[in-house]
Amino acid sequence: MSQQQSVNQARASIYQLLSSLFAKEVDHQILHELTSAQAMAFWQQLGSEPSFSHDVEMIVAKLQTLTSDKALLELAADYCGLFLVGTKHSASPYASLYLQKQASSDDDQPLLFGEQHQQMSQFLKQSQLQVQSEFPEPADHIAVMLAYVAHICVNQDLAQQCEFVQHNLANWLANFVNKVAEVDQGSFYLPLARLTQSWVESDLQWMQGEL
Amino acid sequence: MNRRDFLKGLVGTSYVVLSGSSVLAPLNALAASGAGASDGWLTTGSHFGAFKMKRKNGVIAEVKPFDSDKYPTDMINGVKGLVYNPSRVRYPMVRLDFLLNGHKSDTTQRGDFRFVRVTWDKALSLFKDSLDEVQTKYGPSGLHAGQTGWRATGQLHSSTSHMQRAVGMHGNFVKKVGDYSTGAGQTILPYILGSTEVYAQGTSWPLILENSKTIILWSNDPYKNLQVGWNAETHESYAYLAQLKDKVAKGEIRVISIDPVVTKTQQYLGCEQLYVNPQTDVALMLGIAHEMVAKNLHDKAFIDGYSLGFDRFLPYLQGETDGIEKTPEWASDITGVSAEIIRDLAKVMTQDRTQMLMGWCIQRQQHGEQPYWMAAVLATMIGQIGLPGGGISYGHHYSSIGVPSSGAAAPGAFPRNLDEGQKPIFDNNDFKGTSSTIPVARWIDAILEPGKTIDANGSKVTYPDIKMMVFSGNNPWNHHQDRNRMKQAFHKLECVVTIDMNWTATCRFSDIVLPACTTFERNDIDVYGSYANRGILAMQKMVGPLFESLSDFEIFTRFARLLGKEKEYTRGLTEREWIANLYNDCKAANAEKFDMPDFDTFWKQGYVHFGEGKPWTRHAAFREDPEINPLGTPSGLIEIFSRKIAQYNYDDCPGHPTWMEKSERCHGGPGSDKFPVWMQSCHPDKRLHSQMCESEAYRESYAVNGREPVYLNPIDAKQRGIQSGDIVRVFNDRGQLLAGAVVSDNFPQGVIRIHEGAWYGPVGEDGSKEGGAEIGALCSYGDPNTLTQDIGTSKLAQACAAYTCLVEFEKYRGKVPQVSAFSGPVEIAL
Predict the structure, then answer these.
(1) Could you tell me if B773 and B111 are in contact, meaning their C-beta atoms sit under 8 angstroms apart?
(2) B28 neighbourhood in chain A, CB within 8 Å
(3) CA quadruple B387, B391, B393, B396: dihedral positive or negative?
(4) What tens digit of pLDDT does each residue of B458-481 get?
(5) How far apart are the first and last CA of chain B?
(6) What DSSP line would sit under B303-367, residue for residue?
């Protein structure tokens, strides 16, 4: 594996990890994997970057408090309130909700499964991919987009990656993070969302520098 | 450290790759080829209409009305927004504290939205466990699974039938009698005219148009309400309203809208309005009746031949029994209508063919039985009941009533009850001396005061001690009155289960929430044309089911499987087989009368058309020969005096129609010194009750400042410094809400309107985001039932009396909360 390939693999793994954490609640298995010795070494390296360190520390600290079923359920309730119910407590994880024109505009574009979902479905199709049937969500779900970037990190050239991230992900993450900050009472998903935003921003910068 | 070094460092760590967790998979061959659900136009329908939908790239792209629907409602533009809505219930959910503590959970947290996702298996087993616990500990009186309502259309997937059949296979439960729409009317009219009348086919519009010279629209707005129907609506009534408009313009028919407000129908027809003070219609009717007698205008032969008890009513009318003669002057003081106009009305209504068309609103008030009864008395005095274009109707604003019926048999439905011989697991009918059926609107009373005995329709009802509620396709946190009282009641419930497609307020106040898919995510069959029964519609699945939602059939088949009763439940038939069977049974019933193709042809074609029907006159047979064709009343005649009701000895519903003062009434009535304004909460113009409120883009077409509109009189608004577009706080001692002001001359002073069906979105009393679960919360969107009174109409019907409601309003100057009734992410500009 060339050095470039290894670097892309590392980037892919971070996108994949972030995707997984937005895709579903933290369960015992995930908790175990996230707190293994290997994982701790990874978190430490990730946190060595100053712009990530604060959020990584918060995430790791939170993971260490998840010592009971009740604690996991409380975190699952945070997840549910943020991402699974369309209520005042939600920061629904769909690009369409942050990119689409205001609902008051004259077109009657639906809010879910709209333009962004169609676009993303096309991207996936072009890459011979589709959303897992066990993940019955629109294709513009943040977990799908992050997983897709993980895929293209090792399958497409930097220019293509850069183009995708810039125009499909980086353009709404700040709004998403603001919404998470507004409604999240906990200390896991806000740092996770912020970490995602700063990771994507720094990765985009790096890609642009490399090009 | 530069970026490359940092990345290299990461390579050095064994970075975390969570096992088995990618949300992506290789494109499968089917999807790659573009096969599977193909794009194109399909047929389906809903309460809002029969229509066609275009599927493109696997999503619903376009909706257009059914070819034969010439007057479609623009509500079909909201359908996509219902399906692709951020408020969708996407997964089975359980309230966290309920998951942790079960029936001992902290119920004051209900409404706080602290849920966790669970699997279907887990959710259904929790549901079953709760039923087990309630049946074991309390028996059937502990479970109420009878609050049912408008559901979605479709004869197979009807949510009420599935829930009640499946829960019924587990055990027995408390049920309701009546409904919120017509509770008083459907209870009183069988005593008076022998049927509910409200849900009966009425005289055909062509006969009305041909014969009527005067049409009285009494508290009736058909142009607004006919947009939606119980089955797939095809809006044929509108063609007749168009003809009526024409006749009004030509002076051929005089239409008088007796109503405090200028209705949508009045505006459309260009007809007259007779303003009447809210809730005083009975006094107006008595004044008219008095004048008819005084001037000898009433049809004594008809009264003698077709009715009973006029002689018992007359002394009351003339003041011999209570010392108050119900003269036009007496009525004028109460109603705000001049004695002169009342006298003129008596003349107008008796001089030529007069059709009375009653709306439902005036029976949704305290003593709501009386205006319906008294209207029937007036119609009897006019003497035209049973003549084409004369008499009285209580339903021409509803579900194509008045459109000539095809006469064809409609398809049956999935059964609501257990099949003969089937028994529930908990085969226990011991309701511990309490009632197994309670009046529909009294369930909150029952929860709050179990064991209390009340009068209801000639019987005694003893409230069961309800510990658990199950709702499916029904949103009582819309249609019931007084949210703060509901919260108190819900604190007493151990378990609440709701099955719905979007996060209604009822879902939010539940413990277990199960996602049902929408009508457009399953196959089904329905009548189109509602009461006209114009044909049969194939409801072809468009997409989905989205997320983890399931059809009602699938949800309760799984539940029945958990009970070991799957075969009993489904009768061993699949969804497709059920639909085909319902169709084939219907085909057999229509054999030799209506030509129906085989099922596959029907399904491909999308519909079967039964053709036009023949005009028909209500009560014509009775008029022809009342002995051979008696009414369903005790005497077989119209009962102006009801001996049966008189024997009940109710102070609030005596033996003949009576004017009684209300607990709250504007224009100088009780309570108006403190809260001077009457709030009417009639059926919405842009929704079906609460259905469609969540459809975002469509809601924005009528919402004001993101809130439900409150319609205000210009002088009332000016006195309070309010202009259109302002946010208004409406309040009384029961609650408070925010709504968006629409100042309009259509509304008289002292009257405001907020359409029911506005989703409840409680926030803290001071407008802060938290505190929605608390008593006293502020509704951020504008649900009028935050303010309405939770009392029965009378001891007879014990029905919903939401229209007896006084309020005050002011320009809102507090911190303006974001609307919390729907989804979060779309910011509302303030």
Answers:
(1) yes
(2) 130
(3) positive
(4) 999 999 999 999 999 999 999 999
(5) 46
(6) HHHHEE-HHHHHHHHTTTTTS----HHHHHHHHS--HHHHHHHHHHHHHS-EEEEE-SGGGSSTT
Q: Which residue has the tokens 């109409």?
A: B793
Q: Which residues pair with B709 in a beta bridge?
A: B740
Architecture of domain A3-84+93-98+112-210: Up-down Bundle (1.20)
Q: Do A109 and B697 touch (CB under 8 A)?
A: yes
Return the amino acid letter for B501: M
Secondary structure element (H or E) that encloses residue A177, with its range: helix A170-183
CA distance to partner chain B, nearest, from residue A72 (Å)? 11
pLDDT reading at B438 higher than 70:
yes
For residue B176, give the 3-state DSSP assignment: strand
C-beta atoms surrounding A138 within 10 Å: 23
Euclidean distance between CA atoms B730 and B739, whole angstroms: 8
A·B CB contacts under 8 A = 241
- ipTM comes to 0.95
Report phi then psi at B477, rounded to 5. Answer: -75, 5
Candidates A11, A14, A19; nearest CB to B23: A19
Contact residues, B window 466-505, toward A, CB-based 8 Å cutoff: 503
**B546 vs A113: CB contact, 8 Å cut-off?**
yes
Minimum CA–CA partner of B706 in chain A = A104
CA dihedral B120, B124, B127, B133 (to 10 degrees): -140
Please name the residue that has the structure tokens 């009850």.
Answer: B417
Residue-wise pLDDT tens digits, A137-188: 999 999 999 999 999 999 999 999 999 999 999 999 999 999 999 888 789 9
Taking CA atoms, A12 is separated from A163, A200, B302, B572, in Å, by: 16, 12, 88, 50
Q: Do B824 and A183 touch (CB under 8 A)?
A: yes
Q: With a CB-CB cutoff of 8 Å, which residues 76-135 of chain B face chain A? A: 77-78, 80-81, 83-91, 93, 96, 99-100, 113-117
Number of residues written out for chain A: 211
Q: How far apart are CA B785 and CA B755, in angstroms?
A: 10
Interchain CB distance below 8 Å, A130 and B25: yes
Q: Residue B287 region, left (φ>0) first, then alpha (ψ -120 to 50), else beta? A: alpha
Q: 């408008």: which residue's tokens? A: B150
Residues in chain A within 8 Å Cβ distance of B55: none
**In which element (H, E) is residue B507 found?**
helix B505-508
Q: How far apart are CA B415 and CA B629, in angstroms?
A: 32
Gap between the Cα atoms of B451 and B465, Å rounded: 7
Give pTM, 2 decimals.
0.96
Contact between B611 and B406 under an 8 Å Cβ cutoff? The reply is yes
- The domains of chain A are located at 3-84+93-98+112-210
Question: What span, in angstroms and rounded, lies between the C-alpha atoms of B576 and B558?
Answer: 17
CA atoms within 13 A on the CB side of B438: 31
